[in-house]
Design a protein that fits this description.
heterodimer, A: about 110 residues, alpha+beta, Alpha-Beta Plaits, 4-stranded mixed β-sheet, 4 strands, B: Alpha-Beta Plaits, 3-stranded mixed β-sheet, about 45% helix, flat, Asp23/Gls24 family envelope stress response protein (chain A), Asp23/Gls24 family envelope stress response protein (chain B)
Chain lengths: ~110, ~190
Amino acid sequence: MTGISAAELAPRIDLAVTAVQGVRECYSARPVVARAFEHVTDVEGSLAAVDEAGGVRAITVCIGVSLDDDAAEVAASVAAAARAAGGDDVPASVRVRVSRLVAPAS
Amino acid sequence: MSEHDDDIGGSGYSLEDLSAYLDRGRTPRIPAIERNAECQAILASMERMGRLSREIVDEQASEPIAESWYDSIMREVMREFRAGRDIPLARTDDGTELVVTEGALYELIRTVGDRIEGVLVGRVRLDQPEPDAPLDVTVTVSVRFGRAMTDAVDEMRDGIRSAIDRQGDLRVGRVDVTVGDVHIDEGEE
């Protein structure tokens, strides 16, 4: 286990996910309460949601994919990128939520 | 900001707020809207509707699309684009869950309709009787006067089937496309 915290990891995941081919957009995967707090305090936090409990990490990311791509393939690449972003061996469950299937950029 | 019951995707903003935001050219940037998938889907739909309205005015030198028609479609879109439940896209053995939201599939189906000439998508329904069952799709469309209805319906049905089948393990069951209306461009009246 390493010292990287959930708060440190989340922006790394954001960067890694954005770099995955086929990802058109990234959205906040954080709980509504956290988003509401950010809104009220005018703070822009990370998009990825990262929780750690009992030495296990739970990562959730939320993306938009072009409807001409296979969303499952893109999501699998995103999951791999999110898992690798920690650069450690902390066990993690990863949930990738495709929230939009959008027309490809013209 | 408007009050709650119209809150889109937990953003704290309503349909009217989004409309005003779009009118302002999306400035100043509002992160709660820009980072919210449901708000982005609604904004994209508003932009498509705006383009459609302008195209009809340009081509037919007619009046803009009636506001009531615009409003009814936007209400339907807003209902559909709420994220809804998560549908599994693919299964893995390493604790990875890949899911697509119901709202994303509604947007997908509407986009298929937008690509078909002479077709306006009205109501869309998705039904999955059991968790692993194929998705049944029911769509109501309006077809432009003069366009062969059977061709339009076949194109819509094939487009929906192929767009969904392309997405991981998702499978399509029934696709029912009903022509609920025929629209006449005003210049043809």
